Amino acid sequence: MACGERAALAVADVLRDHVAKLSLSPEQAKAAAHILACRTGCLGGHLALCDRCGYQHFAYHSCRDRHCPRCGSLDQALWAEAQLPHLLPISYFHLVFTVPASLRPCFRGEGRVHALKALFEATSETILEVAARRGLRPGVLAVLHTWNQQIEGHPHTHCLVTGGGLGQDGFLHKDRYLFPIKVLRYVFKIKLLQKLRRLHGQRLLSVGRHSGYQLLRDADSRVWNVDVRRPLAGPEQVVRYFARYTRRIALSDSRLQSYDGESVTFRYRDRKDANRVKSKTLDAPSFCQRFLSHVLPARFVRIRRYGILSNRVREPLLQRCRELLGAESPSAVPRETRSAACLRIFGIDPERCPNCTEGRLVVHAVWRATRLPLDAVLASLQPRAP
Which domain holds residue 31? Predict the structure, then answer.
């Protein structure tokens, strides 16, 4: 059961009218069907009765799809809390590795899964190998973004990196970043270009043979953008920023301003104009196509960990780092139900009766979700009446 109210205007409203006209991949069709069915009778629901006043409360279930802009707020908050015990009492840095505009066609179509894997590999290898030259093993938490504020294709990775690393002489930590940005930029450029050239030679990218080599040559002649930032509010701020995109893509329902059945207007921040808030209008099919273009391939992992944060070695290496830094181990987090977590984080108790505010809602009946093929769900969509 979701903790918040449904927005007055939602991405699902636009998809419902126009998604049936689009040519979608299986992953995009599945995500669209889930978003459209979210909090409707298609996914089932339950009837809860107040144990005090007998109030009847009907609730539809959420889709829990990682691409849905409507649900997942509680999962995001819980994920962010789960990352905090992994933070060490040291400085952290926020790195952004951006793919040049000339290479963006390589990250489209059926070959995008190979290009996205290459982007993750180039990012992690750049940080770890540059650190290894100094005898250090840092911790890296990386998350993939494939969009910009105008929901255009813009593949890049955000990384939260420790301001030091584990070495032979202990844990080396400095307040200033250890690696020159020019070195990171150069190594990242070489590594990603090598990987994309290899993939293009194997015909695994969705670009023409000759045009692909032209794109690679153009990218090689340009200066690449690698940004290093210091989180002013601490690493917790970056973790919360990462958490916003663990369960969503492109934009949230709150950014939508208007929809008249033919065009969509949404808010965005213009990075080239001092982050001023502006409005952009797209025809509805283009909006749907842009939004669904950021649906990830099946089973693709969006958030990855490297170095001392790697899943296989994280616990022993973090404990070793705490011992070297003289830091205490984090206390164990007690288990709690989702209802209790919703009350603690959002101040909303989903089990409290909204009628008498004193009784508790007890589930009395549950109905199952309908199981229709995705093609049938999308083909049954009808535009809303004017």
Answer: 11-68+349-379
